[in-house]
Amino acid sequence: MENKGVDKGVIPSSPESPDKWGYESQFKAYLLLLAAKGSIALEKTRQFPEKIELGVTWHEMLNNMRESTASDGTEKWAFAGVKTERRGIFLPTVPIKGTSDYVPGETIKKMKDWARNKAGIVDFLGNIHSHPGNFAESLSQRISSLVMNKHDLVEVFSAGDLYSFITRPGMWFMGVVAREYNIFAFKAKESIGLGVSRDGFSQDDFEKYWYEKFGFKYLGSAKDFGASRAISVSPDANQKKMNIGIARRHGFLIYQGKANKDLIKIFPK
Hints:
Blueprint: E1 3-5, E2 20-21, H1 23-37, E3 51-52, H2 56-72, E4 76-83, E5 90-92, E6 96-97, H3 105-117, E7 121-131, H4 135-138, H5 141-144, H6 159-167, E8 173-178, E9 181-187, H7 203-213, E10 216-218, H8 222-225, E11 230-232, H9 239-250, E12 252-258, E13 263-267
Parallel strand pairs: 2-3, 7-8
Antiparallel strand pairs: 1-5, 3-13, 4-6, 4-7, 8-9, 9-12, 10-11, 12-13
């Protein structure tokens, strides 16, 4: 398995409320700054742009995940990381393969071990995974997707996705490839964690709380129930609003973009 390096760059100053971060001019440099400085380098929410451009290598990987997931119906997972010199962003050429419902933790661990030991990756900046085409429908999104909300969110993260994102230090972004769209969550200076330990508020606790707050019944873990772990029990059940609710509570941003296009800020507006 190979890694694809991204060009070196100089970190520019960050403008206040820019309209767009170009990949070469800003976004890549921001990720490299996070790799070097950690949470102290996080931007404030108001300093994030309306649009973020992804590099060509990123779109190649996202499309690879999209096509392979459509072909075999299984989730894929990949990371973005840096080597010791922290002068380029590295992405796997071939993402790892999970099941139709999730990517097992032990499979992710094996890839990260390979990345550290064989590819020389010293820091993981974030990760990206895919959702098979039936993911939204299996969470009763076929009905709620007909109800447009003011945030114009088309695809969704699962509550489990967002629990992982919120609780993992050093995970600055998370992306999901879902049908024709890419969606990304980004931490900001204002982002907050659970407020308690993971033992005190487990993933099951988190998923149950948020799904049931937004009109679903939570049946159990992804390992046991897969993508069907939450079923609609209310005509107002809406996972898109749940995504926005979690983002508001924990202070992160959500972006969305069509395949091969820029990411557009969905939340906050």
